Amino acid sequence: LKERDFMLMGSPMTAETRNDVFGSAYNVQEHTPMNFEPHPSVPAGGTNFMDDVLDDWNPATGAITPGEGFVVYPQAAYIDPAYAGPPPVTTIQFPLTYSEGTLNTGNVDRNIIFRDLTVNPDGTPNFLANPYASPIDASMLVANNALINEIYFWEHLTPPSAAIPGANVINVSMDDLSIYNGTMGIPAANDPGTSTAPNGVISTGQGFGIKAFGSGTVTFTNSMRLTTGNITLRTPEGLEKLLLKVESDQYQARSYTGIGFRGDATPQLDEGMDSNRLATLIALYSHLEDGSEQLGIQTRESFESGIKIPMGFASQIEEDTTYKISIVDVTGSNLTVSNIYLVDHLTGMITDLTQNDYEFSSDTGTFNGRFTLQFETEVLANGDLALNSISLYPNPADALLNVVSPNAEITGIRIHDVLGRKVEDISVNSERSYQVDISSLDTALYFVTVTTESGSVTKRIVKK
Predict the structure, then answer these.
(1) For the chain, how are helix, strand and coil distributed in percent, rounded to 5?
(2) Which whole-number Å values give the CA distances from 215 to 70, 153, 440, in the listed order?
């Protein structure tokens, strides 16, 4: 490992303790999920593992519980006055000898802790680890545990730094996290290539994070276990995958997003198939058809050329900067022979990404619905592009409905019920986004007509 780096580790043995297998480590920490509060310096809109008050990780002193993930620092993370040991070196080899108890086998259960969404609106972090002396199949782990929607891996790319947002003196980078769900993996944003894209195999002792939206139990089973590299027969049949990258050469920043197509998925939010984006320095992400969600991985139904996928972009770089969107990888018999078009609703440009990368400029901010990814070309007038980019979210909605029109100013919003009766008529003073309070409406289907300077469009919503 590099200087000040750490591992997220577990044990394949039944009776290991902090002072046995990790006895030579400078520091070993265990996680307390109920103490996690997201740090406000990490921007909203993406998955956040940065704690606000530094009390969610605490020194481990006892058993290394099977299935639990621990942070292990082989050498000093930084030199403090109380540390009397040798100075840290640039890299270190850290041999582990597991010897206490017997090898885990059969079902291994791990309790998952969930804190209310008021404090953790993006879910509560829990840290797990492969409990077996063999690799396991990540897709099977996700498919067989309703509490796991995706898995987050720590990649060893960026040294801790005081320049990275967080509550500590020095902090690790959210851009060093990779993601895997039941469909595909996407690399960490800091990866200059694609070497950190998870392949669906979790090695012996490997730890990982999840975000929980409910309490319960995660169960590891022998059926998830693999022999080395034996994953071919466990790959979903007919899977078509597309990996896109956005990058800034000037700031050496990048982000990846994945789109998958499979027969058991839907255009709606699917557990274990759709995953939120990370709160990285820059981010390219996809929306559901209604413009809601910000997804780092989205799985759609079986591929058809008429599918359109709305997409957004976010940047924390505080100046107008040039970015490039490109295709990293395409797999699948249908997708590999298809044209892949990116429509920029702000500029009106349509680019075939299979032929050329797309360059655009953006300032800091979050720009939902700026792009559409599609697989059939069509000629769109400027007004059509403006109307096509209008999004309503969340959908279904409970209290507040967001109406976003990135390319044309909104002048009015009208809501009708299924019988055509007008229930709301709102005059808007030339806004690009507007919130409508629908808390007083009955639970039902409604039609929302958004009027802009470029024309009108009507979309359906569901009031919960």
Answers:
(1) 5, 40, 55
(2) 20, 22, 32
- pTM, two decimals, is 0.72
Q: What are phi and psi of 319, to 5 degrees?
A: -165, 160
Q: Check if the beta carbon of residue 344 is closer than 8 Å to that of residue 371.
A: yes
Kindly state the DSSP code that residue 278 receives in the 8-state scheme: B
DSSP code of 21?
Answer: T
Judging by DSSP bridges, how do beta strands 295-300 and 253-261 pair with one another?
A: parallel
Query: Measured between alpha carbons, how far is 161 from 177 in angstroms, rounded to an integer?
Result: 16
The residue type of 65 is T
β-pairing verdict for 201-202 and 185-186: unpaired
**How do residues 354-403 score in pLDDT, each as one tens digit?**
989 999 999 888 888 899 999 987 645 556 667 777 888 887 888 899 89
Show the tokens assigned to 97. Answer: 């000898």
Q: Write out the two tokens for 464.
A: 């919960």
Q: What span, in angstroms and rounded, lies between the C-alpha atoms of 293 and 46?
A: 10
How many CB atoms sit inside 10 A of residue 434's CB?
A: 17
Alpha helices in 130-219 (DSSP H): 138-143
Nearest Cα to Cα of residue 56 among 163, 216, 180, 168: 168
- pLDDT tens for 399-431 read 899 898 887 889 999 998 877 788 999 999 988
Phi, psi of 132 (to 5 degrees): -110, 160
Query: Could you tell me if 39 and 165 are in contact, meaning their C-beta atoms sit under 8 angstroms apart?
Result: yes
Which of 362, 334, 341, 367 is closest to 244 using CA atoms? 341
Alpha-carbon distance of 436 to 450, in angstroms, equals: 12
Quote the mean pLDDT of the chain. 86
Closest of 433, 300, 276, 459 to residue 374, by C-alpha: 300
Place of tokens 């891996």: 153
